[in-house]
TrEMBL record:
Keywords: Carbohydrate metabolism, Glycosidase, Hydrolase. This is Beta-glucosidase. It holds the Pfam family Fn3-like. Belongs to the glycosyl hydrolase 3 family. GO terms for molecular function: beta-glucosidase activity. It comes from Paenibacillus typhae. Residues 577-647 form the Fibronectin type III-like domain. GO terms for biological process: carbohydrate metabolic process. SUPFAM superfamilies: (Trans)glycosidases, Beta-D-glucan exohydrolase, C-terminal domain. Gene3D superfamilies: Glycoside hydrolase family 3 C-terminal domain (3.40.50.1700), Glycoside hydrolase, family 3, N-terminal domain (3.20.20.300), Immunoglobulins (2.60.40.10). The keyword Hydrolase applies.
Amino acid sequence: MKSKKKLLNLLTIEEKAALLEGIDSWNTNGIPRLGIPKLFLTDGPHGLRKVRSAGGGFAVSDNAHSTAFPTSVTVASSWNPEYAKRMGEAIAEECNAEEVDVLLAPGVNIKRSPLCGRNFEYYSEDPLVSGKFGTAFVQGVQSRGVGCSVKHFAANSNENFRFVGNSIVDERALREIYLRAFESVVKEAKPYTVMCSYNQLNGVFASQNKKLLSSILREEWGYEGVVLTDWGATCDRVEGVLAGCDLDMPGGVWHNRKTVIEAAKTGKLPMHKLDQAVERMLGLVEQCTSKKPKGGGYNPESHAQLSCEIAKDSAVLLKNDGTLPLSGKENLLVVGEMFEKMRYQGAGSSLINPPKVITPMNAFDERGVSYIYEKGFRCFYTERDTALEQAALNAAKQADTILFFGGLSDFEESEGFDREHMKLGANQTELLNALIATGKKVVLVLFAGAPVELPFFDKLSSMLNMYLPGMYGGEAAAALLYGEVTPSGKLAESWPMHNSSTSCYADYNRSANSNYYESIYVGYRFYDKAGTTLRFPFGYGLSYTSFQYSNLSFSQSGETITVKTDVTNIGGRSGSEVIQLYVKNNRGKVFKADKELRAFTKVFLTEGETKTVELTFNQSDLSYWNVKEQRWVLENGTYEIAVAASAADIRLNASITITGEKEAVSPYSADIMAAYDKPPLSIPSAFTDLVGYPLPVAVSKSKLTIESTLAEFKRTLMGRILYTGVMHVIQKDYKKAKAMPDSLERDTRMKNSHFVVKMMPYNSIRSMCMSSGGKFTYQTAIGFAELANGNLIKGLKPLLKREKPLPLPGEQ
Ligand code: BGC
């Protein structure tokens, strides 16, 4: 390829506009006459999802075989970012084999609520954990010449309303919580691309948010790569290019290309702005084509084995009265259809089609374990089946130990929509209660991507949380249950008892306006200070052995603070321990969380062994973002270093004094300080001052526009016809899948169509047309909106006068 500067001189405006838009769902445009190749981009994050057919934006069923790794929530529970790196390397090998240029991964959004349907795809509620795992993943993938797209930038913490929602976040929370993981990934791993989110941030769509995409990302953090839209996230494409959004995906939206060409010709889009975006796209083409080895094979079984190793090291033992590990001598009853139909990944755009799955049943049978199995409940449904329940209860009479395989299904937890509550299906809770009432030992083995309520927890003997463990998750579960491996995962998120005790409960998914009124008090930062009783604290996890901490010391060299501590395995078997370092904040001029995670490490110890572990952090990590001075401020004072086994289990501490830092004036009024001294439990009036502008109120606009959601169209007769028409088509897919014979194929198809059925009502007409690959044009969308408003003539005009698609350069 010629140099970028040369190409810029040779490209026409039409060609430049074409380079900034995809050609279909997964390919960008190339310019053959100048030897500029197209690029292939695809999902991510827990494996390669290469759709076989061209498909639409949401085609998720017809995927080529690839390794289904444990999902991000699972990997983060290993507390070992090395796994994210190795997983990234392996996925990149698969990308190379399939000639994929950019993997749409990882997702480093912060878990604000346990209800977010996409939590399984994100690492943690804590930005340090998310940042470390995201960085390692990108480093792994890009070391093999494949680009990454760190996503979804930013403050995208809910799926309901995701296409139209507005995240209202104060700048300090943004800097310290929601942007921080992105900042470290961008600075340390230099992802080839960043994917902006669907939502608005403080009233401006992320895809055209200049402050986010240019001021912060590029000017402050020094990012030089490409920003691309999430699939269908473009609102005003010219505003997007002006704000620093380079590539519009998926492709085929010629309306956007046309507006870019027109704006470039009239000067509304200055040529140097267009050229900046094109230059970055050419840079991406260069990166992807110069470093990547083409083709190449990989060993699918060794990747599957890696997925299994990660799953073993990530599962979290949450309770154990000694029933685990199993000895093999138990009279074992296994209950729950998840035993034979394990849930190992999440639903939506990350859905992988692995060549093989090892369920717990496969793994038990492979070991020759003797057990009685009763389904007890069907895993795709939440309704009770009394016949299945009775059979399980009858079988319990013969058993001394009951293993219950339960969890959430893809119908309850998925990309595209959020959960409404944290409960497990009634079919599972009722049966669990009844089995517990038999007096037999009951062990719960859980498969879910996010916390669930556990009202029966006190009466369980043991509980092993597998999260979503990937294709060989059943093998990992069996190895852990039978003690071939010692559990060593810890939760990378707090587990509240109920949804009502979460930090954003008062305003989560109440309307399209999401008030992030809890500010910096997210996850343990909230629970710690609010004094909430939790089911399990952040960082919690048990082992079959136990560890003792001793000899804490620390030293400082320049900016770096090094903390050392001895950890001894004092239990009866080898195992790994996750050591966490929190720093308790001083009481300065601004409100702060009680303590924040500053470093972590994981160490393997044989029985009786002691190792000295080192944890380091930068003194500047203790700074807060001062909105008034627009800088990080480190307050002088005393901070406590706490070495801990979880956020609620501090083993050793020491204090450190910081002096000589430049003092800053508090940016906060007395009202803000009073409202945020403790985390607020509802939206305080001071939140307006904190965000710095009047809070938008959700008013139901009388006129329907292309920004209205499909569900809003139900308000008018014509709108209802449109709504019913669209829903009918996608519900038909669901019904067709449901009618198929029981098979993996049926499950996958049902999941995929269910995801679309649930998501579609929240989709705006604009976003639908942006992601339709040209099938639902911008003009048609405008026409429909007019018709729905009862404007027959205005509506029919664009529908009847079918605008001819703008040909691509070279097609004229
Ligand atoms: C998701 C992205 C994904 C893209 C392409 C979107 O709906 O939000 O995470 O990468 O689709 O499948």
